[in-house]
Structures are given as structure tokens and as C-alpha cells.
Amino acid sequence: MRHPPQLVPDIQNFGCPVGTLTNELAKLGHPARPQAVAVFDLFRTWLRTQFEALGFATEADNLATHALAFSQGVATVSNAFHDGEFVQREVDRLHAWLDERLAHGPTPRAAH
To answer: CATH number of the domain at 7-111, please?
Structure first.
């Protein structure tokens, strides 16, 4: 599955607006930072719910946080280097990671 091509220029030109806002508010110690972090919490919660629905209940939060961190790293590096092919490679890598996780199921320690 390919990343929607219309999103690649936005990611490489602007990065993630939520990540940028959260970083800048943190640097300033701004009181609005918790509201920006709440947007990440919404995404993390949604991802966690998806992993739980796929049978990864015990490790769902760790997997959700990993996917969120991975996507933020891709957005940051893509913005730095303006490399749309990098975005596509990393999206493909994330898809491969998800496919592998689904193929193998929850880790044994998480199954208990």
C-alpha cells in the first residue's frame, strides 16, 4: 500500500503541525502545551484501540506509542531533507512492521 501522494509534499514541506506545536510549546514552558499533547493522546488512544481490536491488548499501548513515535520521526526527517521518497520508504517500512506483527500475533510475554 502506497502513502497517499498528495500528503507527501505536506509532510516534507511542513512536518507534523502537532509535533511542531508541542515541541515549541515545551521549549517555552507554555501553559497551552497540555492541550497540544491532548491531540497526541487522541491519536495514541485510537491506535491503542486498533491494536486491542487486533488481539494485542497487553502490548497495545506500547505498539501505539511506537507507531506514533515512528511517524513523528519520519515527519521530522522528511521536513529536514525534503525527501518524498524517504517518506514512502518509511511508510512502506511501517506497513511491513505492522504486517509482521499481525502475522506473528502478540508476544508470548504479553499473552499472559
So the answer is: 1.10.357.10
